[in-house]
Amino acid sequence: MNDAKNKSVYKPAIQGDLFNNGTPNQNNKAPTETGQHNGSRNNFDNVGKKEDKEESDENPFAKRVKKGGWVLLALLLAGLFYAFNLSTTAKVDYSPAAQEALESHISTTLAPGTKLLDKDGNYVGGDITITHSDERPETSLLVWDYAAEDGDYVQIIANGTPLGEPFMIRNKPVSFTIPTTGDIQVIGTHDGGGGITYAVHYGMNKTTYFNGVDQGGRNTYTLVRE
């Protein structure tokens, strides 16, 4: 009898740990979940800080590489632009028409910008009177170096008025607008070596004159309408 009574009032010890007045003990479980959550958050924070540090360490180098690449590209483009715009050297024309123009110093068939010589030949020309029948008040004047681009400078004067500052003549023609009557002067302001050889093409008669002048000298083209 005593054994049966003892067994009927026996309660497992674990029941006292899980229940308090018939209600589950929430305090036993919550700390565990909170600890796990805090641990995960700390792990993510540590990973984020590590990635931020690595990104911060790499940024200065990456920025320098990118900046250097853009600078190199800009220099390359600038070089190409410079070469395309300033390298105007033409090839010498050895055609029969060019040889004839080299002897007579005049041509009505050669295109403006024609190059007749590889280097200047110390040629000094003279003044020229041009008679024409163009009724327009103005016409075009093209000026270029028909030999080597060696640093020759000239200045254009139209009826006593300078048309800009002295400029270096190249194989590529420079265009001016001039009156169809009066005096057009080409002044040699600087000889780059071998004399100042130049060509002028007048739009009113579509004729090119291959001329030359000393430094400090001038050639006068007198334009007369018939």
Distinctive features:
226 residues, alpha+beta, Lipoxygenase-1, 2 domains, 6-stranded mixed beta sheet, 5-stranded antiparallel beta sheet, 35% helix, elongated
Tally of helical runs:
4
Head-to-tail CA distance between termini: 157 Å
CATH architecture of the largest domain: Sandwich
Q: What fraction strand? A: 25-35%
Please count the beta strands (DSSP E, at least 2 residues each).
13
Q: What is the CATH level 1 assignment of the largest domain?
A: Mainly Beta
The figure for the number of domains is: 2
Shape: elongated
pLDDT below 50 for ≥5 consecutive residues: which ranges? 1-35, 81-87
**Helical content, roughly?**
25-40%
Radius of gyration: 46 Å
Overall residue-averaged pLDDT value: 79
- Annotated CATH topology of the largest domain: Lipoxygenase-1
Structural class: alpha+beta
Order of helices and strands: HHEEHHEEEEEEEEEEE
Sheet with the most strands? 6 strands, mixed
Summarize the structure in short.
This protein has 226 residues and is α+β, with helices and mostly antiparallel strands. It has helices spanning 2-8, 13-18, 30-86, 96-104; strands at residues 19-20, 23-24, 106-107, 128-132, 138-144, 153-158, 161-162, 167-168, 174-179, 182-190, 196-202, 207-213, 218-225.
Q: How would you describe what is shown here?
A:
By secondary structure, the protein is of the alpha+beta class. It folds into two domains: 16-86; 96-225, Lipoxygenase-1. It contains four helices and 13 strands. It has helices at 2-8, 13-18, 30-86, 96-104; strands at residues 19-20, 23-24, 106-107, 128-132, 138-144, 153-158, 161-162, 167-168, 174-179, 182-190, 196-202, 207-213, 218-225. The strands form three sheets. Strands 4, 6, 7, 8, 10 and 13 form a six-stranded mixed β-sheet that branches. Strands 3-12-11-5-9 form a five-stranded antiparallel β-sheet, covered by helices on one side. It has a two-stranded antiparallel ribbon with strand order 1-2. The longest helix is centred in the first third of the chain and has 57 residues, at 30-86. It is elongated, with a radius of gyration of 46 Å. The relative contact order is 0.13.
